[in-house]
Amino acid sequence: MATASSTWTPVEARSWRDTLKITRTGIFSVFFILIGLWILLSAPQNIAGDASTLLTFDRTGQQGISVPTVPFAVVVALLYVAGGIVGLLSTPRLSRIKFIWLLVNGLLIIPTVLIIIAAGGRTNIVVMLQESLRLATPIVLGALAGIWCERSGVVNIAIEGMMLTGAALGFVSYTLLLQSGLGLSNEWAQFLAVIIAVLSGGLMAVLHAWLSITFKTNQIVSGTVINILAIGLTSYLRLEVLVNAEAARATLQTVQIPLLKDIPVMGDVFFTGKPIFYGMFMLLLVTHVVLYYTRWGLRTRAVGENPHAADTLGVNVQRNRWINVIIGGLIAGLAGAWFSLETSGAFDDQMTAGRGFIALAAMIFGKWTPIGAFGGGLLFGFSDALGQRFQFLGVPVPPQFLQMVPYFVTLVVLAGLIGKSSAPKADGIPYEKS
Amino acid sequence: MKKQGFLIFLIAALLVLAVVPALAQDSLIESVCLVTDVGKVNDGTFNQFAYEGMLAAVEDFGLDSTYIETQAQTDYDTNLNRCIEEGYDAIVTVGFLLADATRAKAAERPDVYFIGVDQFVGEDADGNPAPSNYVGLQFREDQAGFLAGVLAAQLTESGIVGGVYGIDIPPVIKYRNGFEQGAKFINPDIKTLGVYIDSFTAPDRGASAAGQFIGEGADVIFGAGGPTGSGAITRAAQDGALVIGVDQDEFLTTFGNGETPGAENLISSALKRVDVAVYTAIEALVNGGEDFPGGTNLIMSAENDGVGFAEPHLAADKVSEEVIAKMEEVLAGLKDGSIVTGVDPVTGELLPEEES
């Protein structure tokens, strides 16, 4: 090693991309030229010339604007081709324009695809955005839970189990509170149930912390144990309590934010929703601020990157990890409450259906940052809604493939847009004082 | 001595001759044992309906009965053995997941009758026929879906109806294609939206699909896919759309006897009468087994009241007499075969258009 490093000379990091002068901009430019040409050649043939697409914006799809399909497709296609050609020019002066043009092209993909598919019919873009955000809510919350844990160096694959526990205990306690004869109103019972869901997620996290921090069990094993435990525990609770209880499927009330709700489109998408939906935005903000602008956040990141150094500087590593893991569990519990109390008004076995794991993917996608994780969650929610929309707009592709859309989009985006994402250095390694 | 022996033989022979024809008409069974899938006999799912069907038969035919509630999937075989050891003549197993255990046990014990709810009985992968003491109960979900489609098409104002479905396995495909065919039977120009969701246990995703349908202008939503479908119709009902449930009368389950907000929008449910099916199969055994299609399936359809539709309950003011009359008419048509769904009863795929 020593001899090797003494004679070491810097070698330029060259990949095959550099040799061929293939840049990311170049790849996208070629992509857009191809797509543009394809639309130009196929759209006028496959769509009736006088067909138009009705884009609707209100909740029940009554009013909207009519877009002539073929002319719109041709304009977009020309924009794609022109943007692609400009993108291939290597004039540095144009780099800003290039970037903006390609970005516009990228943003136009989804509306264009929808308008073409819904030719002769109609499609509601606002509702689709709304549903994307709803579907993203538990994923973003789960990803935030993961960030709290992993930024302090504890891998948490038990988010799924914590969510499931929160969903079950929240709904069970809601049912019991209503039946208890305490005379609680529905709203109070729901509020208390959400609190219990959050706490039960935290309780599962205590188990995780106890096993993986105090006893230094392998964190993957500990997480797996919790996931399995949660499945058994929750289905037992359902059989014992819920099956014979005549529980109403009431869900949390929709809240509209005054004034802001009247902004067109934005008002429907962002300012009309249920409490946990808003809670997701608040926790996103809180996580971001705490992680990057507070002493606690700095210490957490230090513990996750280099616990020995942090310890030397007087940070109590074990305590920091314990607290962060529990905070993560509380957030996962809230995500669980979203499933049972906010959306379904019921608890069904394994109703989280793998969203805890998707949340982990969203967290990695976002490079362990809250804002990035939000983007990742949104991408999953959006792709899910898009896959559904493709199905009912009648894209001639078997539904199994359309159900793959979320995962396919993730692959493409991870491989093409996001660079290498690296975990906190000490992630997954139990801390041993040396 | 020889004479006496002969006499005994004669009497015995006479007895056998007397008993054999009597056996052909008399009940093949005196007792029934029911094994649930993981769950309980009062859990509001198939387990409960199968149990109720068995109880009705037990009462009508004066049989002995018991049930075993399965705690874990690994206990199927143990529970079947318990039924046999305690001397029960017929065993009802509830659910698709028990198919393998039931089939194996049926081959092992030809002296006991087996009835498998939602289990398809036929040749195995090697072409061996199924044991003749084993019958599967299959349902014409397409007919139930067809009736739901007839109802939806009559009540929609926008001319757009939506269906949220679970994983695209044959029963679900049958519901979907039946529903869409039924809607087109009433109004050939109706627009039917449909989504398969790759999970039966994702009520939130079902709800989101329903939300998208409402955004597209759909005003009647059919949910067929376990909790995923129930999630869809609860959400849609709370958002003011009319909804149709599936399998059982969801007014009693999902809508908590009217407690759940939106219960006034549940106009019906496409029914799959598991209780009737179990009753029919036991009845066939009691009547000497001529109607017990051993080694194959008992197909439950409109003809034998195996499928149907539920009453509108709190939505009675939204479903007029004429609408119900039309559904009764279609049900009668399905019964006598004058109306066909155009759906393959096994795969659920649409049949090619026929000249009829």
- For the largest interface in this structure, which chains are involved and how many residues does each contribute? A-B, 46 and 44 residues
List low-confidence stretches of chain B: 19-24
Number of domains of chain B: 2
How many strands appear in the DSSP assignment of chain B? 12
Backbone CA Rg of chain A = 25 Å
- Beta percentage of chain B is 15-25%
Report how far the terminal alpha carbons of chain A are from each other: 26 Å
Output the keywords.
heterodimer, A: 434 residues, mainly alpha, ABC transporter involved in vitamin B12 uptake, BtuC, 2 domains, three-stranded mixed sheet, two-stranded antiparallel sheet, 18 helices, 68% helix, 4% strand, disordered N terminus, B: 356 residues, alpha/beta, Rossmann fold, six-stranded parallel sheet, six-stranded mixed sheet, 12 strands, 41% helix, 18% strand, elongated
